[in-house]
Design brief:
Layout: H1 2-6, H2 10-32, H3 37-46, H4 52-80, H5 84-104, H6 108-123, H7 132-156, H8 162-188, H9 195-222, H10 224-228, H11 230-260, H12 267-286, H13 293-298, H14 304-308, H15 316-340, H16 365-387, H17 395-409, H18 416-437, H19 444-462, H20 467-484, H21 495-519, H22 524-546, H23 554-580, H24 590-618, H25 624-649, H26 661-677, H27 682-713, H28 717-722
Helix pairs in contact: 2-3, 2-7, 2-19, 3-7, 3-20, 4-5, 4-6, 4-7, 4-9, 5-6, 5-16, 5-17, 6-7, 6-17, 8-9, 8-11, 8-12, 9-11, 11-15, 12-15, 15-27, 16-17, 16-21, 17-21, 18-20, 18-21, 19-20, 20-21, 22-23, 22-24, 22-25, 23-24, 24-27, 25-26, 25-27, 26-27
Length: 725
């Protein structure tokens, strides 16, 4: 038992305790005011997020959706209460419009709450239209008071602000860069490079970059300075990624040099590494300083003059490493300068680009999903009417709308198991309280300890990083609250009413799951494979398209930016679908293999971005004798991406990739020969050096592609595709 408590996550436990306190306060307030308790208690459950900023933003959207949905529901009752058919048709059409906007809006959560409130204000009083206004007012009033409770509990009692989490992640990223640099310095000193430690550090840094972006979005809500300087911090994250790429480039060059020729680097490289270490230490100390224009003036120079005295005449490899160290120092200097003035009020950030608007089309996926949701709603209504389903046109409709909304955001079959299982977990706990505990107590105060015992484990599990577990816990809590039917003055206990309410919940969730399950072919295994295949095919197409455009043209910039955006989206989808795969249907190692696959894809995306930047900067300066060998190496990398994509499309193992080692050695030998023949020509020397750096980026990209190929071949894709049935 002691080990169980010691293994709990303190942050998740604190969040669960605060949410449980909010539920207890919400139930106490609503019972004392004779309001419907479930409205506010459900709000407390759904508002639980990791950071106060995300919670605060959700409360604003919740209020907007509640107020608009309540007014619309009352209007529908007022206009069509006299004609049942027109009312049903109007609600179905209005729900379809809301489902379409749910998918197109940048704030889908507000539209989801609008649709749920519309169902609550429209369907609950449908049999008694005179009660529509009272229900709408009670709903709106309860939610507004509940938002105040949420703010007091999560915003005042030990608030977890995303701004502080962002600062911790920023510090962790800088420490990670220093760790990578220390490992590289050890290799420079003549020690054997710790390849495994470098790989782990690289993977951790890539994950931290992604976490920084997501945490910054939450920090813009709960921390004023991050909201004011959001664009500046976004640019800072981009420069941190450039610093990471520069460090990884040096690491790859040194480890490759050690593996090929095992040289001991010169003293000038040692001193340069020490100088960069000082820059990184300075960057770590900069994190606790003021970030304005005066802070920038206080910063000392980064010692670029020392870099200019590097002797690069010993070997081409040393010259390339020295130039890369120069890039690292320059990147560190840019990060320090950007960090020092990121909050300078005198600097104006460019406005964020407006989102692109897609033209309306009846054939779009959004319209099809909205139409399908409306049809499912209409069929379910007819089923409830014909079978006289218990609470079919009241409570069941609310959860029906919720299920349809989830299907528009993600395939409902992804979470169908959790939804159906919650129909057992929540009611089972509610039955124990409803029939075993509550009849023996007289006041709400006596029920509070039991509520804590029941809700804290559910709320702790709700903060689980796995979406399936989180949804299971959240739905179980919602059903538990709905089935308790608390009433301080008129509490009654009836098995028939409890069972009818449970049947209503089953109808609201079970019927859409059944209908969507009959026609849905979307499964996590298949979607994960599709995203992986799209990633490799997109990388190959992006590289090929860059060969047909000038490096400095706007088309090249657009291609690079669109490719990066597409890859980030695909990697995000891979993470989501890989978490939803049921690995119990596969051999034990498939979970680890899938994770290794995603990590190798992240590294490939990072090195592809580096190779694209290097090519854009260096392709025009490559000497004529080296242009064709470099282009052949570039085309080989693009063909390797496409080869893996074609193999995945056929569910076959990826074939042996083209050998890039011989091409790289050929370019290196030609560079060395050209450098010796033009020893007095500084322009040729610089051109050869840039060619070597561009070639090195392609070599690291080729290594990353090879890792992806190996990880892809560790998975039997035919078995993977067969097991999802």
């Amino acid at each position: 038992m002691k080990s169980l408590f010691l293994g709990l996550d303190s942050a998740r436990l604190l969040l669960a305790l605060k949410t449980c306190l909010a539920i207890v306060l919400a139930l106490g307030i609503t019972l004392s005011l004779d309001w419907k308790p479930s409205f506010m208690a459900i709000l407390m459950v759904t508002m639980q997020t990791a950071f106060f900023g995300a919670t605060f933003k959700k409360t604003i959207l919740y209020i907007l959706g509640t107020l608009s949905g309540s007014m619309t529901g009352v209007a529908m009752i007022a206009m069509f209460a006299h004609d049942r058919r027109l009312f049903i048709l109007g609600m179905v059409v209005l729900t379809g419009i809301g489902l379409y906007r749910l998918q197109k809006s940048r704030e889908p959560y507000a539209w989801m709450i609008f649709l749920v409130t519309l169902a609550l204000a429209g369907w609950l009083p449908a049999a008694h239209p005179s009660a529509a206004f009272d229900i709408a007012v009670m709903r709106a009033t309860t939610i507004c008071v509940g938002v105040i409770v949420v703010y007091c509990v999560h915003g005042i009692i030990l608030p977890v602000r995303a701004g502080k989490a962002f600062e911790r992640q920023l510090s962790a990223f800088v420490d990670g860069c220093r760790h990578i640099h220390s490992l590289v310095s050890s290799a420079v000193a003549g020690n054997e490079p710790d390849v495994e430690a470098l790989r782990r550090a690289e993977t951790a840094q890539i994950k931290t970059i992604a976490a920084l972006r997501s945490t910054l979005d939450a920090a813009t809500v709960d921390t004023k300075r991050f909201k004011q300087f959001h664009v500046g911090y976004q640019q800072l994250i981009g420069q941190l990624q450039d610093l990471l790429l520069a460090l990884l480039s040096v690491r790859s060059s040194i480890t490759s040099s050690r593996n090929l020729t095992s040289p001991i680097m010169g003293d000038h490289l040692h001193s340069t590494m020490q100088m960069i270490d000082g820059e990184l230490r300075g960057l770590a100390s900069d994190l606790v300083r003021e970030r304005d224009a005066e802070a920038l003036n206080r910063e000392s120079t980064t010692g670029e003059s020392d870099l200019g005295r590097l002797d690069t005449s010993e070997s081409l490899q040393d010259a390339m490493i020295a130039d890369q160290l120069n890039i690292v120092a320059s990147s560190a200097a840019k990060v320090r300068a950007a960090l020092a003035c990121v909050e300078d009020p005198g600097q104006t950030s460019p406005p964020p680009p407006s989102p692109t608007r897609e033209p309306f089309s009846l054939r779009s996926v959004q319209v099809q999903k909205a139409a399908l949701g409306s049809v499912v709603m209409l069929l379910t209504i007819l089923l409830f009417i014909q079978t006289q389903w218990p609470m079919g046109l009241s409570l069941a409709m609310i959860f029906l709308v919720l299920a349809i909304c989830f299907n528009c955001l993600m395939p409902l079959m992804m979470i169908s198991r959790q939804m159906l299982l919650s129909l057992l977990v929540g009611p089972l706990i509610a039955a124990v309280l409803y029939f075993g505990i509550m009849p023996r107590i007289d006041q709400y105060v006596e029920l509070i300890p039991w509520l804590v015992v029941v809700f804290v484990p559910l709320l702790y599990w709700q903060s689980n990083p796995k979406p399936q577990a989180s949804l299971l816990a959240m739905f179980s809590s919602l059903f538990l609250i709905a089935l308790l039917s608390l009433d301080e003055q008129r509490q009654s206990y009836s098995f028939s009413s409890f069972f009818e309410m449970w049947l209503g919940l089953c109808g609201g969730f079970g019927v859409p799951v059944l209908i969507f399950g009959l026609f849905s072919t979307v499964v996590p295994e298949q979607k994960f494979l599709t995203q992986v295949r799209s990633f490799f095919a997109g990388c190959g197409q992006s590289m090929q398209s860059l060969t047909n455009t000038p490096p400095d043209s706007p088309a090249t910039t657009t291609t690079i930016q669109s490719g990066r955006k597409q890859r980030l989206g695909l990697i995000k989808q891979m993470h989501m679908w890989s978490r939803l795969v049921n690995y119990r249907r596969f051999p034990d190692a498939y979970g680890r293999r899938t994770q290794a696959m995603v990590e190798s894809i992240q590294r490939a995306a990072l090195w592809l971005e580096s190779a694209e930047d290097s090519r854009r900067k260096s392709v025009d300066s490559i000497p004529d004798p080296l242009r064709d060998p470099y282009q052949r190496l570039y085309d080989t990398c693009a063909a390797s991406f496409q080869s893996i994509a074609d193999a995945l499309a056929n569910l076959e193992p990826a074939p042996d990739l083209p050998d890039t080692t011989a091409r790289i050695r050929d370019i290196e030998s030609q560079c060395a020969e050209l450098r010796r023949s033009a020893a007095e020509n500084d322009e040729v020397q610089a051109s050869v050096l840039r060619t070597m750096i561009a070639t090195a980026h392609l070599r690291w990209l080729a290594n990353a592609i090879s890792d992806c190929c190996d990880n892809a071949n560790h998975i039997d894709w035919k078995e993977w595709n067969r097991n999802h049935f």
